[in-house]
Amino acid sequence: MLLLPPQLITDMTAWRQHLHRFPECGFDVHLTADFIAEKLHSFGIEVVRGIGQSGLVGILRQGSSPASIGLRADMDALHIREQNTFSHCSQHDGKMHACGHDGHAAMLLGAACYLAQHPTFDGTIYFIFQPDEEHGCGAQAMIDDGLFERFEIDEVYGIHNFPGLAEGELMVRPGSLMASESSFEITITGVGGHAALPHQGIDPLVVGAQVVLGLQTIVSRNLSAIHETAVVSATEFITDGTVNVIPSTVTIKGDCRCFTESALARIEQSMARIVAGICQAAGAEYQFSFTNTFYPTVNSPAQTRYAVEAARQVLGEDRVHADCDPLTISEDFSSMLRVKPGCYVLLGNGTESVGGCALHNPRYDFNDRILEFGARYWIQLVTNRLSPITGHR
Fold first, then answer.
1. CB 362: neighbour CB atoms within 10 A?
2. What pLDDT was estimated at residue 390?
3. Does residue 391 lie in a domain region?
4. Residues 37 and 146 in one domain
């Protein structure tokens, strides 16, 4: 069984808590990237900076094989004011690592350190540190900046901590693991007027109410009840009317989730058709926008098998859940999986007071006890995939 040196576990904990103290958001993660780059350089790993604005890639080569693997961690925090009181709480007011990206970065740094000191693989490892996951822009920014053209990455893997799952357990599934996230905005323009004389205008509030109800038919009548799971939620209904004034405009905003790009396209098409039809029937004008922020996270079958194998070697057969239920949360690693085969896994952060607090909560903290599990998983995955004998089968 692969064991990490105690000093490396201590170092990973120190790195994680340092990153937690100094959170940065979006693409403005320059101090974080500086810290990570300095550590990679100290391990003897080549570093390329400024990919997707503030992303970076560490490159570690060994042997003569052309095979390669990409391991990705996110670096950004959230605009949340931390409510914890421990010694490593955020020093940047209004920002905190409430999603555990500090832990993801520290785990990957630990794996990089170990692999640089124990280069028993044959091929190239790319350590990908990505900005702006929370807004769903960082992965695509790195891709648009040539991530997969500048670096010959055969397959790519990611990991996220998961509160509510016991520490040291892991869950994954082939195919759709997590949902897309899309937002929509519909502005309906009618003819406002006196509430006592509705016949003199076109009431956009009534039209908007019909639109909201019509949107609820998309999942039940346009998607397969067996094969396509989706959620369409209208979350805002805004008017410029008042107690005795029929409004002139109504704005409807909302959120959509689904697990395949075909369902995503059908939702957008159906929504456009429903809005156009109802507004035309009422004689109202409209504007409709549909913005996709996160694609569905779809794991490749072969790479999922490799991930499960590595996880079982590290964690044990009974601690790896290889066919978990899909989740309606979203992740912008999905953009990388649209370009390269790969797999995204969820590592238990804990169920009790340590590790059980929900993500995006002001009292969340990454469970440092799982740093070792994550680093060992990365190392085992690289060892298997870039083995001089059995790798890249």
1. 14
2. 64
3. no
4. yes
Over the stretch 277-293, which tens digit does the pLDDT of each residue have?
A: 999 999 999 999 999 99
The answer to whether residues 74 and 107 belong to one domain is yes
8: part of which helix (H) or strand (E)?
helix 6-21
Pairing of β 123-130 and β 68-74: parallel
> Cα separations (Å) of 274 from 187, 256, 292?
13, 15, 19
Locate tokens 């958001």: which residue? 25
Number of domains in the chain: 2
Domain hosting residue 227, numbered range: 181-294
Higher pLDDT, 352 or 212: 212
Judged on CB neighbours under 10 Å (0-12, 13-18, 19+), 48 is middle
For tokens 């009292």, the residue is: 363
Q: Measured between alpha carbons, how far is 115 from 382 in angstroms, rounded to an integer?
A: 9
Q: Is the dihedral of CA 368, 372, 377, 383 positive or negative?
A: positive
Q: Mean pLDDT in the chain?
A: 97
Surface-to-core class of residue 307, CB atoms within 10 Å of its CB (0-12 exposed, 13-18 middle, 19+ buried)? buried
In a domain, 318, yes or no: yes
- The CA distance from 328 to 297, in Å, is 10
SS3 string, 277-341, reads HHHHHHCCEEEEEEEEEECCEEECHHHHHHHHHHHHHHHCHHHEECCCCCECCCCCCHHHHCCCC
Does 227 lie in the same domain as 277? yes
* Identity of residue 30: H
Report the chain's C-alpha Rg in angstroms: 24
Q: Rounded to 5 degrees, what are φ and ψ at 360? A: 65, 20
Same domain, 215 and 113: no
Strands 320-321 and 170-171: parallel
Could you read off the pLDDT of 69-119 as tens digits, one per residue?
A: 999 999 999 999 999 999 999 999 999 999 999 999 999 999 999 999 999
Contact 250, 208 (CB under 8 A): yes
